[in-house]
Design goal:
With 368 residues, the protein is α/β, with parallel strands linked by helices. It contains 13 helices and 14 strands.
Protein backbone atom coordinates (compact mmCIF):
# COMPACT_ATOMS: atom_id res chain seq x y z
CA UNK A 1 0.00 0.00 0.00
CA UNK A 2 2.98 2.32 0.60
CA UNK A 3 6.67 2.24 -0.33
CA UNK A 4 8.46 4.31 2.29
CA UNK A 5 11.89 2.83 1.64
CA UNK A 6 12.05 3.89 -2.00
CA UNK A 7 10.85 7.34 -0.99
CA UNK A 8 13.64 7.52 1.59
CA UNK A 9 16.32 6.45 -0.88
CA UNK A 10 15.60 9.47 -3.08
CA UNK A 11 16.38 11.89 -0.25
CA UNK A 12 18.72 9.66 1.77
CA UNK A 13 21.71 12.06 1.96
CA UNK A 14 19.53 14.90 3.26
CA UNK A 15 17.74 12.71 5.79
CA UNK A 16 20.91 11.05 7.05
CA UNK A 17 22.72 14.37 7.42
CA UNK A 18 19.80 15.92 9.29
CA UNK A 19 19.58 12.98 11.71
CA UNK A 20 23.34 13.01 12.26
CA UNK A 21 23.26 16.71 13.17
CA UNK A 22 20.68 16.02 15.86
CA UNK A 23 22.78 13.18 17.26
CA UNK A 24 25.85 15.40 17.33
CA UNK A 25 23.94 18.19 19.07
CA UNK A 26 22.40 15.76 21.60
CA UNK A 27 19.26 17.96 21.57
CA UNK A 28 16.96 14.95 21.48
CA UNK A 29 14.00 16.57 23.27
CA UNK A 30 12.72 20.07 22.37
CA UNK A 31 15.79 20.73 20.27
CA UNK A 32 16.37 23.66 17.96
CA UNK A 33 15.16 21.63 14.98
CA UNK A 34 11.67 21.31 16.50
CA UNK A 35 11.29 25.09 16.51
CA UNK A 36 12.71 25.34 13.00
CA UNK A 37 10.26 22.77 11.70
CA UNK A 38 7.33 24.49 13.43
CA UNK A 39 8.32 27.78 11.79
CA UNK A 40 8.74 26.22 8.35
CA UNK A 41 5.42 24.38 8.57
CA UNK A 42 3.77 27.59 9.76
CA UNK A 43 5.04 29.37 6.65
CA UNK A 44 3.96 26.52 4.38
CA UNK A 45 0.43 26.39 5.77
CA UNK A 46 0.18 30.17 6.18
CA UNK A 47 -1.02 29.75 9.74
CA UNK A 48 0.22 31.79 12.69
CA UNK A 49 1.03 29.03 15.17
CA UNK A 50 2.20 25.41 14.90
CA UNK A 51 2.40 23.36 18.10
CA UNK A 52 4.01 19.96 17.55
CA UNK A 53 3.19 16.98 19.76
CA UNK A 54 3.64 13.24 20.13
CA UNK A 55 1.08 11.98 17.61
CA UNK A 56 -2.16 12.85 15.83
CA UNK A 57 -4.35 11.37 18.55
CA UNK A 58 -2.67 13.56 21.16
CA UNK A 59 -3.22 16.56 18.88
CA UNK A 60 -6.97 15.94 18.87
CA UNK A 61 -7.11 15.35 22.62
CA UNK A 62 -5.12 18.45 23.48
CA UNK A 63 -7.21 20.52 21.07
CA UNK A 64 -10.36 19.42 22.88
CA UNK A 65 -8.75 20.09 26.25
CA UNK A 66 -7.92 23.64 25.13
CA UNK A 67 -11.45 24.32 23.90
CA UNK A 68 -13.02 24.78 27.31
CA UNK A 69 -15.36 21.80 27.13
CA UNK A 70 -16.79 20.14 30.21
CA UNK A 71 -17.81 16.50 30.85
CA UNK A 72 -21.19 15.87 29.25
CA UNK A 73 -20.71 18.42 26.47
CA UNK A 74 -21.49 17.07 23.02
CA UNK A 75 -19.12 17.01 20.04
CA UNK A 76 -20.48 16.27 16.57
CA UNK A 77 -18.35 14.26 14.18
CA UNK A 78 -18.48 11.54 11.53
CA UNK A 79 -18.94 7.79 12.17
CA UNK A 80 -16.81 7.07 9.09
CA UNK A 81 -13.27 7.79 10.24
CA UNK A 82 -10.35 6.31 12.15
CA UNK A 83 -11.17 5.76 15.80
CA UNK A 84 -8.84 8.49 17.13
CA UNK A 85 -11.34 11.17 16.19
CA UNK A 86 -13.94 9.70 18.53
CA UNK A 87 -11.91 8.04 21.26
CA UNK A 88 -10.45 11.34 22.44
CA UNK A 89 -13.97 12.73 22.83
CA UNK A 90 -14.97 9.75 24.97
CA UNK A 91 -11.75 9.75 27.01
CA UNK A 92 -12.39 13.34 28.08
CA UNK A 93 -15.91 12.34 29.23
CA UNK A 94 -17.48 14.33 26.42
CA UNK A 95 -20.27 12.84 24.33
CA UNK A 96 -19.59 11.84 20.71
CA UNK A 97 -22.59 12.68 18.52
CA UNK A 98 -22.50 11.25 15.01
CA UNK A 99 -23.79 12.77 11.80
CA UNK A 100 -23.93 10.91 8.50
CA UNK A 101 -21.64 11.50 5.53
CA UNK A 102 -21.86 12.39 1.85
CA UNK A 103 -21.55 9.39 -0.43
CA UNK A 104 -19.59 11.38 -3.02
CA UNK A 105 -16.90 12.76 -0.69
CA UNK A 106 -16.91 10.32 2.28
CA UNK A 107 -16.93 13.44 4.50
CA UNK A 108 -19.48 14.64 7.05
CA UNK A 109 -22.61 16.01 5.38
CA UNK A 110 -23.20 19.64 6.44
CA UNK A 111 -26.88 19.30 5.55
CA UNK A 112 -27.27 16.77 8.37
CA UNK A 113 -25.19 18.47 11.06
CA UNK A 114 -27.87 20.89 12.27
CA UNK A 115 -30.23 18.01 13.02
CA UNK A 116 -27.67 16.66 15.50
CA UNK A 117 -27.24 19.94 17.40
CA UNK A 118 -28.72 20.17 20.90
CA UNK A 119 -28.39 22.58 23.81
CA UNK A 120 -25.34 20.55 24.92
CA UNK A 121 -23.45 20.77 21.61
CA UNK A 122 -20.18 22.64 21.94
CA UNK A 123 -17.98 21.61 19.00
CA UNK A 124 -17.78 20.01 15.56
CA UNK A 125 -14.87 17.86 14.39
CA UNK A 126 -14.94 17.54 10.58
CA UNK A 127 -12.51 14.99 9.15
CA UNK A 128 -10.85 15.63 5.80
CA UNK A 129 -10.98 11.95 4.94
CA UNK A 130 -8.64 10.30 2.44
CA UNK A 131 -7.11 13.73 1.68
CA UNK A 132 -10.26 15.45 0.42
CA UNK A 133 -11.40 18.58 2.29
CA UNK A 134 -14.75 18.57 4.03
CA UNK A 135 -17.21 21.35 3.12
CA UNK A 136 -15.72 23.86 5.54
CA UNK A 137 -17.63 26.91 4.33
CA UNK A 138 -20.97 25.39 5.27
CA UNK A 139 -19.56 23.93 8.48
CA UNK A 140 -18.24 27.35 9.52
CA UNK A 141 -21.64 28.90 8.83
CA UNK A 142 -23.26 26.36 11.15
CA UNK A 143 -20.61 26.86 13.83
CA UNK A 144 -21.14 30.61 13.82
CA UNK A 145 -24.91 30.25 13.95
CA UNK A 146 -24.73 28.05 17.07
CA UNK A 147 -21.47 29.41 18.56
CA UNK A 148 -19.60 26.11 18.24
CA UNK A 149 -15.86 25.44 18.14
CA UNK A 150 -14.49 23.76 15.03
CA UNK A 151 -11.55 21.38 15.39
CA UNK A 152 -10.35 20.04 12.05
CA UNK A 153 -9.00 16.52 11.81
CA UNK A 154 -6.50 17.04 9.00
CA UNK A 155 -4.48 13.90 9.68
CA UNK A 156 -5.00 12.69 6.10
CA UNK A 157 -5.05 16.00 4.26
CA UNK A 158 -1.91 18.01 4.96
CA UNK A 159 -1.17 20.25 2.00
CA UNK A 160 -4.71 20.09 0.61
CA UNK A 161 -6.36 23.35 -0.41
CA UNK A 162 -9.93 24.32 0.38
CA UNK A 163 -11.54 26.79 -2.01
CA UNK A 164 -14.16 29.16 -0.59
CA UNK A 165 -16.97 30.45 -2.80
CA UNK A 166 -15.31 33.89 -2.98
CA UNK A 167 -12.18 32.36 -4.49
CA UNK A 168 -10.12 32.36 -1.27
CA UNK A 169 -7.87 29.31 -1.07
CA UNK A 170 -6.58 28.05 2.28
CA UNK A 171 -4.92 24.90 3.58
CA UNK A 172 -6.98 22.35 5.48
CA UNK A 173 -6.39 22.47 9.21
CA UNK A 174 -6.06 26.26 9.21
CA UNK A 175 -9.75 27.09 8.78
CA UNK A 176 -11.39 26.22 12.12
CA UNK A 177 -10.37 27.23 15.63
CA UNK A 178 -7.74 24.47 15.77
CA UNK A 179 -6.43 22.05 13.18
CA UNK A 180 -4.80 18.71 14.00
CA UNK A 181 -2.58 16.44 11.97
CA UNK A 182 -0.57 13.24 12.24
CA UNK A 183 2.94 12.54 11.01
CA UNK A 184 2.51 8.76 11.13
CA UNK A 185 5.01 7.28 8.62
CA UNK A 186 2.43 6.48 5.92
CA UNK A 187 0.91 9.97 5.95
CA UNK A 188 1.53 12.37 3.06
CA UNK A 189 4.03 14.10 5.34
CA UNK A 190 5.27 11.30 7.55
CA UNK A 191 8.19 10.90 9.93
CA UNK A 192 10.07 7.72 10.91
CA UNK A 193 7.97 7.11 14.01
CA UNK A 194 5.10 8.92 15.70
CA UNK A 195 4.43 12.62 15.57
CA UNK A 196 1.66 15.17 15.34
CA UNK A 197 0.85 18.87 15.37
CA UNK A 198 -1.85 21.42 16.07
CA UNK A 199 -2.45 24.61 14.07
CA UNK A 200 -4.16 27.83 15.12
CA UNK A 201 -4.27 31.53 14.30
CA UNK A 202 -5.46 32.38 17.82
CA UNK A 203 -2.75 33.62 20.20
CA UNK A 204 -4.61 32.54 23.34
CA UNK A 205 -5.24 29.05 22.00
CA UNK A 206 -1.60 28.78 20.97
CA UNK A 207 -0.45 29.50 24.50
CA UNK A 208 -2.96 27.10 26.01
CA UNK A 209 -2.11 24.29 23.59
CA UNK A 210 1.61 24.64 24.33
CA UNK A 211 1.01 24.62 28.09
CA UNK A 212 -1.30 21.59 27.95
CA UNK A 213 1.15 19.61 25.81
CA UNK A 214 3.91 20.35 28.34
CA UNK A 215 2.44 18.96 31.57
CA UNK A 216 0.31 22.11 32.01
CA UNK A 217 3.53 24.04 32.60
CA UNK A 218 4.33 27.55 31.35
CA UNK A 219 7.14 28.34 33.77
CA UNK A 220 9.36 25.40 34.63
CA UNK A 221 7.96 23.42 37.59
CA UNK A 222 4.94 25.73 37.92
CA UNK A 223 1.75 24.05 36.72
CA UNK A 224 -1.15 26.24 35.64
CA UNK A 225 -3.22 23.44 34.06
CA UNK A 226 -3.59 19.68 34.30
CA UNK A 227 -1.78 18.77 31.12
CA UNK A 228 -0.14 15.87 29.34
CA UNK A 229 3.35 15.03 28.13
CA UNK A 230 3.26 15.10 24.35
CA UNK A 231 6.16 16.29 22.24
CA UNK A 232 7.72 15.72 18.85
CA UNK A 233 11.21 14.24 19.18
CA UNK A 234 13.93 16.37 17.62
CA UNK A 235 15.06 13.59 15.27
CA UNK A 236 11.51 13.29 13.92
CA UNK A 237 11.34 17.07 13.47
CA UNK A 238 14.61 16.95 11.52
CA UNK A 239 13.21 14.25 9.21
CA UNK A 240 9.95 16.14 8.71
CA UNK A 241 11.76 19.39 7.96
CA UNK A 242 13.53 17.69 5.06
CA UNK A 243 10.39 16.02 3.76
CA UNK A 244 8.34 19.23 4.03
CA UNK A 245 10.33 20.62 1.09
CA UNK A 246 8.99 17.77 -1.03
CA UNK A 247 5.39 17.73 0.21
CA UNK A 248 3.87 19.55 -2.78
CA UNK A 249 5.69 17.17 -5.12
CA UNK A 250 4.56 14.17 -3.08
CA UNK A 251 0.95 15.34 -3.24
CA UNK A 252 1.25 16.00 -6.96
CA UNK A 253 2.54 12.47 -7.55
CA UNK A 254 -0.45 11.10 -5.65
CA UNK A 255 -2.79 13.19 -7.80
CA UNK A 256 -1.14 11.89 -10.97
CA UNK A 257 -1.59 8.30 -9.77
CA UNK A 258 -5.24 9.02 -8.89
CA UNK A 259 -5.91 10.44 -12.35
CA UNK A 260 -4.30 7.36 -13.89
CA UNK A 261 -6.56 5.11 -11.84
CA UNK A 262 -9.62 7.17 -12.75
CA UNK A 263 -8.85 7.11 -16.47
CA UNK A 264 -8.30 3.35 -16.48
CA UNK A 265 -11.20 2.39 -14.20
CA UNK A 266 -13.94 4.78 -15.34
CA UNK A 267 -15.17 2.34 -17.97
CA UNK A 268 -15.94 -0.40 -15.42
CA UNK A 269 -19.63 -0.06 -14.62
CA UNK A 270 -19.33 -1.69 -11.18
CA UNK A 271 -16.89 0.96 -9.91
CA UNK A 272 -17.41 4.53 -8.71
CA UNK A 273 -14.07 6.31 -8.78
CA UNK A 274 -13.26 9.16 -6.39
CA UNK A 275 -13.34 12.72 -7.62
CA UNK A 276 -9.97 13.83 -8.99
CA UNK A 277 -10.61 17.47 -8.10
CA UNK A 278 -7.29 19.15 -7.49
CA UNK A 279 -8.08 20.00 -3.86
CA UNK A 280 -7.66 16.34 -2.83
CA UNK A 281 -4.18 15.13 -1.90
CA UNK A 282 -5.24 11.47 -2.07
CA UNK A 283 -3.91 10.08 1.15
CA UNK A 284 -5.93 7.06 0.07
CA UNK A 285 -7.35 6.20 -3.34
CA UNK A 286 -10.71 4.70 -2.46
CA UNK A 287 -13.22 3.29 -4.91
CA UNK A 288 -16.83 2.42 -4.14
CA UNK A 289 -18.45 -0.64 -5.69
CA UNK A 290 -22.04 -0.63 -6.90
CA UNK A 291 -22.56 -4.31 -6.11
CA UNK A 292 -21.45 -6.75 -3.40
CA UNK A 293 -18.21 -7.77 -5.11
CA UNK A 294 -15.83 -5.89 -2.77
CA UNK A 295 -14.54 -8.84 -0.78
CA UNK A 296 -14.20 -11.04 -3.85
CA UNK A 297 -12.27 -8.30 -5.65
CA UNK A 298 -10.01 -7.84 -2.64
CA UNK A 299 -9.26 -11.57 -2.54
CA UNK A 300 -8.63 -11.63 -6.27
CA UNK A 301 -6.15 -8.76 -6.03
CA UNK A 302 -4.42 -10.51 -3.17
CA UNK A 303 -4.01 -13.60 -5.36
CA UNK A 304 -2.25 -11.32 -7.86
CA UNK A 305 0.02 -9.96 -5.07
CA UNK A 306 -1.72 -6.59 -5.10
CA UNK A 307 -2.46 -5.18 -1.63
CA UNK A 308 -5.70 -3.38 -0.88
CA UNK A 309 -7.41 -2.24 2.31
CA UNK A 310 -10.86 -1.44 3.63
CA UNK A 311 -11.07 1.95 5.32
CA UNK A 312 -13.27 1.38 7.33
CA UNK A 313 -15.03 -2.00 7.62
CA UNK A 314 -17.42 -1.00 10.43
CA UNK A 315 -18.55 2.56 11.16
CA UNK A 316 -17.82 3.77 14.66
CA UNK A 317 -21.44 3.94 15.86
CA UNK A 318 -21.64 0.15 15.43
CA UNK A 319 -18.34 -0.64 17.15
CA UNK A 320 -18.53 -2.50 20.45
CA UNK A 321 -16.69 0.23 22.36
CA UNK A 322 -19.32 2.81 21.44
CA UNK A 323 -22.48 0.79 21.96
CA UNK A 324 -23.08 2.79 25.15
CA UNK A 325 -24.03 5.77 22.98
CA UNK A 326 -27.22 3.96 21.98
CA UNK A 327 -26.89 4.06 18.21
CA UNK A 328 -28.13 1.16 16.09
CA UNK A 329 -27.82 -0.20 12.59
CA UNK A 330 -29.68 2.00 10.16
CA UNK A 331 -29.01 5.27 11.97
CA UNK A 332 -26.37 6.40 9.46
CA UNK A 333 -27.18 4.57 6.23
CA UNK A 334 -24.57 6.24 4.01
CA UNK A 335 -21.69 5.41 6.35
CA UNK A 336 -22.98 1.87 6.77
CA UNK A 337 -23.38 1.37 3.02
CA UNK A 338 -19.90 2.65 2.22
CA UNK A 339 -18.30 0.51 4.92
CA UNK A 340 -19.37 -2.57 2.98
CA UNK A 341 -18.64 -1.18 -0.49
CA UNK A 342 -15.34 0.74 -0.36
CA UNK A 343 -11.88 -0.52 -1.23
CA UNK A 344 -8.62 1.41 -1.14
CA UNK A 345 -5.96 0.62 -3.74
CA UNK A 346 -2.21 1.21 -3.42
CA UNK A 347 -1.48 4.95 -3.23
CA UNK A 348 1.94 6.45 -2.61
CA UNK A 349 4.63 8.56 -4.21
CA UNK A 350 6.60 5.68 -5.72
CA UNK A 351 3.91 4.12 -7.90
CA UNK A 352 5.10 3.79 -11.50
CA UNK A 353 3.19 3.30 -14.72
CA UNK A 354 3.92 -0.42 -14.90
CA UNK A 355 2.55 -0.97 -11.39
CA UNK A 356 -0.53 1.14 -12.06
CA UNK A 357 -1.22 -0.65 -15.32
CA UNK A 358 -0.85 -4.04 -13.65
CA UNK A 359 -3.29 -3.12 -10.88
CA UNK A 360 -5.85 -1.74 -13.34
CA UNK A 361 -5.43 -4.71 -15.71
CA UNK A 362 -6.16 -7.12 -12.87
CA UNK A 363 -9.27 -5.18 -11.82
CA UNK A 364 -10.47 -5.15 -15.45
CA UNK A 365 -9.88 -8.89 -15.70
CA UNK A 366 -11.90 -9.49 -12.53
CA UNK A 367 -14.92 -7.67 -13.96
CA UNK A 368 -14.59 -8.98 -17.52
Amino acid sequence: MVDLYRQYLKIKPEIDTSIQKVIESSEFIKGTKVREFENNLSNYLNVKHIITCGNGTDALQIALMASGLKPGDEVITTPFTFVSTVEVIALLELVPVFSDIEESSFNIDPAKIEKAITSKTRAIIPVHLFGRPADMERILDISKKYNLSVIEDAAQSIGANYLFSDGTKVKTGTIGNIGCTSFFPSKNLGCFGDGGAMFTNNDDLNEKLRILANHGMKTRYHYDEIGVNSRLDTIQAAILDVKLKYLDNYNNLRSIAAKFYNDRLKGISNIITPSAKEESVFHQYTISLKDDSRDNLKNYLESKEIPSSVYYPLPLHLQKAYQYLGYKKGDFPVAEYLSSHVLSLPMHTELDVDQLNYICDCISEFYS
